C-alpha cells in the first residue's frame, strides 16, 4: 500500500483528490494539510511514501516544503501539482529534487499513475512542461538579484529592501538597474512581470 500525504489549500480540490485516490486499491491518504507550514510535521507523524504538494501553498510554499522533506524524511518522494505552466518553475522544482511535477488540469487518472511511478523510484514530469522547458531560457539573474526583485515584487521600497538585506540603498538601486537591463525591461514593474511570467519569482 502506497501511503500518501496530500497538501492542498483549496478544500474542495483536496476533498476531490482524497475521494479520487480512495478508489485506488493500492493507495491510501494517511495525512492531509492545507498549509505549507504543516507539511513536515504531518509527514514526520504519518510517515508517507509520497507527498503530493501544491506549489502555491500558503505559509511555506510547496517547493520549500519539498526541499525540507528531502532533508528530514529522505524516504518520502515528492510530487508537485500546480496550475502554473511555467518552465522556470519546473527548473526550480528540479533544483529542489522533486520526484514529479504535474499540472492540475491533467486527467485525474494521471495522478494515481504518477504516484505509483514516484513510489517505484521514477521521475514523472508533465510532457507539455518538458517540451516548453526544452526551449527555456535560464534565469539570467544572480541569487542576490532574484532576492532583491522578490522583495520589490512584495511592494518594498528601495530603503526597505536595503534594510531587509543589510545593504545600502545605493547598492539596491544598482541591483535594480542591473535587473532591468538583464531582463530588457522598461522598469522594475516590467522586470517583475517578466520574471513572474518566466517562473523565476514565487
Please write out the topology.
Elements: E1 2-7, H1 11-22, E2 27-33, H2 39-46, E3 50-54, H3 62-72, E4 77-82, H4 87-95, E5 100-103, H5 109-119, E6 124-125, H6 127-134, H7 143-153, H8 158-165, H9 169-182, H10 188-198
Parallel strand pairs: 1-2, 1-3, 3-4, 4-5, 5-6
Helix pairs in contact: 2-3, 4-6, 7-9, 7-10, 8-9
Can you describe this structure?
There is one protein chain. The protein is α/β, with parallel strands linked by helices and 202 residues long. 51% of the residues lie in helices and 15% in strands. The protein contains ten helices and six strands, in the order E-H-E-H-E-H-E-H-E-H-E-H-H-H-H-H. The chain has helices at 11-22, 39-46, 62-72, 87-95, 109-119, 127-134, 143-153, 158-165, 169-182, 188-198; strands spanning 2-7, 27-33, 50-54, 77-82, 100-103, 124-125. Strands 2-1-3-4-5-6 form a six-stranded parallel sheet, sandwiched between helices. Helix 2 packs parallel to helix 3.
Q: TL;DR?
A:
This protein has 202 residues and is α/β, with parallel strands linked by helices. The protein is built from 10 helices and 6 strands; from the N terminus they run βαβαβαβαβαβααααα. It has helices at residues 11-22, 39-46, 62-72, 87-95, 109-119, 127-134, 143-153, 158-165, 169-182, 188-198; strands at 2-7, 27-33, 50-54, 77-82, 100-103, 124-125.
Amino acid at each position: 500500500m502506497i501511503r500518501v500525504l496530500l497538501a492542498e489549500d483549496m478544500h474542495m480540490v483536496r476533498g476531490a483528490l482524497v475521494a479520487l485516490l480512495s478508489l485506488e486499491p493500492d493507495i491510501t491518504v494517511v495525512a492531509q494539510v492545507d498549509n505549507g507550514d504543516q507539511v513536515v510535521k504531518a509527514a514526520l507523524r504519518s510517515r508517507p511514501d509520497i507527498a503530493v504538494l501544491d506549489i502555491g501553498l500558503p505559509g511555506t510554499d510547496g517547493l520549500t516544503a519539498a526541499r525540507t522533506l528531502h532533508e528530514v524524511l529522505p524516504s518520502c518522494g515528492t510530487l508537485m501539482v500546480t496550475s502554473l505552466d511555467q518552465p522556470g518553475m519546473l527548473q526550480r522544482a528540479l533544483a529542489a529534487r522533486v520526484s514529479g511535477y504535474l499540472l492540475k488540469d491533467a486527467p485525474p487518472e494521471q495522478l494515481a499513475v504518477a504516484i505509483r511511478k514516484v513510489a517505484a523510484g521514477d521521475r514523472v514530469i508533465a510532457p507539455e512542461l518538458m517540451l516548453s522547458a526544452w526551449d527555456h531560457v535560464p534565469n539570467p539573474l544572480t541569487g542576490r538579484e532574484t532576492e532583491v526583485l522578490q522583495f520589490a515584487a512584495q511592494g518594498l521600497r528601495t530603503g526597505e529592501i536595503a534594510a531587509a538585506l543589510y545593504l545600502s540603498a545605493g547598492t539596491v538601486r544598482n541591483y535594480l538597474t542591473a535587473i532591468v537591463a538583464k531582463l530588457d525591461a522598461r522598469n522594475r514593474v516590467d522586470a517583475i512581470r517578466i520574471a513572474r511570467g518566466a517562473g523565476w519569482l514565487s
